Amino acid sequence: MNDRKKRRRRRSGNALVDILNGFLTLLVIGLVVVAGGFIFVASQYYGDGPAPEERVFRVETGSSLSSTATRLEEQGLISNSLIFSQFGSRVEDNTVIRAGDFRIPAGASMAEIFTELTQGNPLRYAVTIPEGWTVWQAIQRINADDRLTGSIDQLPPEGSILPGSYDYTPGDTRQSVLDKMQLAMTQALAEVWETREADLPLESPAEMLILASIVEKETGVASERPQVAAVFVNRLRVGMRLQSDPTIIYGITLGQTTLDRGIRRSEIEERTAYNTYQIDRLPPTPIANPGIDALRAVANPDSHDYLYFVAKGATPSEGHVFAETYADHQRNVAAYRAIAAEAAAQAEADAESARQTLEAEEAEDAPDAQ
To answer: Could you tell me where the Acidic residues compositional bias lies (predicted)?
Structure first.
């Protein structure tokens, strides 16, 4: 009887061992499978990606991690969107996807792409408005940028845009970019007005803006702006008319085209709102968008007694010569006209020489006349 009990105890003991062995076996197999799965997923995540060449990938504003992963897989930049989103969200510190365009190198791993989209800097895009452009020119450039959305169908007030470069994210609206430009001008105008010369003969920031736009169009030489501004300020102080050619041109074109000819005598003699040869003080609006330096030049012009200026040479980059009296100004004008005539004659001589050279080459190639 004792033998039977011993045999039962041995069988029970063996069964327990078998169960434990089976459990351990399953556990080991499970661990192996899990480890193998982890190794596979990790190798997919950290290994080279499928992209054969460098690509630019766009993340739209408000995109989620899962939707971004799906688009990455659809575009052939990663092999598995689930691994990218689920594994990446567990092993990476930052999981917030940034909006913008990102440069993805050829063969970039999921880990590298994840880091780029969460910590990298999007490609920089900007709309640049040069100093002295009109609002019409500025809106043409904004509307032509196909990375922006929406449209601007109505021109903003002339002079309401501060020239410069304005960053944006692809998909931003054109109106939002314009809003930035106008806010920058509003802020710049207020700041410069607060620093203006005490006895400036201007009654408001709006008048300062108008005069700055005239200064901007009168000279392309940055160092001359305070001098040119002072000439116009001196004229305002003594009650002289500004007599600025760019104001006449703006009255003709309204800033929406270029005047590819000289100003006619009839246009100088015609009394219009923008003809500063005929009206006192300032025109009703700016004639362009002045830059910050032109605003500062008007707010704090040079101290001199010049009332006149004329171009120094045949090219704008040569700047201007200034005079206090009309007699001196006339001499400067005569000198300029001589220089301009000489430059025009030289240009015509060069053109004629080029024509003769071409004619000689054609004659050499032509068959002899019979």
So the answer is: 359-370
